[in-house]
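Dear support,

Our group has been running a series of protein-ligand predictions, and this particular one with pyridoxal-5'-phosphate is the one our PI (initials K.S.) wants archived with full inputs and outputs. We had some confusion internally about which version of the output was final, so please treat the block below as the authoritative record. The input we submitted was:
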Amino acid sequence: MTSSALMNTYGRQPITFSHGKGVRLYDDAGNEYLDAISGIGVNSLGHNHPAVTAAITSQAEQLIHTSNLYGVERQEQLAERLCKVSGMDNVFFSNSGAEANEAAIKIARMFGHNNGIEKPTIIVMENAFHGRTMATLTATGNRKIQAGFEPLLSGFVRAPYSDLDAIKNIAANNNDIVAVLAEPIQGEGGINILPDNFLSELRVFCDEKNWLLMLDEVQTGNGRTGRYFAYQHENILPDVVTTAKGLGNGLPIGACLAQGKAAKVFGPGNHGSTYGGNPLVCAAAKAVVDTVVEDKLCENADAIGAYLLDQFSNALADKPLLRNIRGKGLMIGIELTTPCAELVNIARSKGLLMNVTVGQVIRLLPPLIINQQEADELVAKLIAAISDFEQQTQ
Ligand SMILES: Cc1ncc(COP(=O)(O)O)c(C=O)c1O
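Confirmed final output from the archive:
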């Protein structure tokens, strides 16, 4: 598994997959797995989806890359489609979530300078995850990710997640704030969900202060929570929203969408990417967005997500090991009272792929195409794995 020719950056599981179909993955020994993590929230349409495969193949036969020196028709089409589903005005395409957030951070800083603020500062949240580049790891609220990479960037202040009073308090003492950056649901941070109306109240406060409201929907976007974007659970528009992961169903694409004043910040030369938004990834992503909308996958995520929460709540109700079950759509966290990283191995041995984050939160991000029968199988496998784990830890 580990090769000396690779930098030692990942703690990989001892398994390699050869192919996949729908919610299933198959390893090189021929074993079948139910994929309840979707490449960390990426394969929203499952594996080997015919619409994505067709889009990639036909685009590859025409044109893969020309650079942003020229017009890119597929990029225009995807941008238009994304603006329509999001209510935003325009889009910058990157190759990853971290890069989409870099674009957002640069928009906020330039917005600040345009308004005469020399040291523009962004409020970020405790337990946030925004990526691994220097700016995004500075914005990330996890010392483990930052340690060893100091000096971090200046221009960020941190507030507790979901604490509007703390944000107001920062505002009262800092005239350099230009934006707030937050995930509507923290994924890496443990499936932490903002309370209802929080974003609406934050929207009002950002307007009062002339700050940009910037949402990181790299993980929550593209139907994951039961709406195309998670902010659509409330009747608001952010100034900036970033996304990636599910957008390309496995092809590397990220997007930074802006509206209103934020959409007018960048001009030619302010930002760029050689690969960003090339014809191949945009053709694939357009097929993804079309499929999510046409196959009503947000509605499916809503319905199956609610079903899974119900099933897990019933099945785990009398388990002393259970602390809490939470989620929206197909972004579900089951928090145990004890560290449970070993559960990943137990579940895998039962043919279930999932993930544990922050030590004791089981994270489920199944493909949005999952049906009720597959959901039942997911529940049965995970409950059996938790029972085994319980016995091992007694
Ligand atoms: C909320 C959030 N933002 C940003 C990122 C970084 O995305 P990428 O790994 O594509 O750079 C992630 C990845 O897990 C994420 O969950």
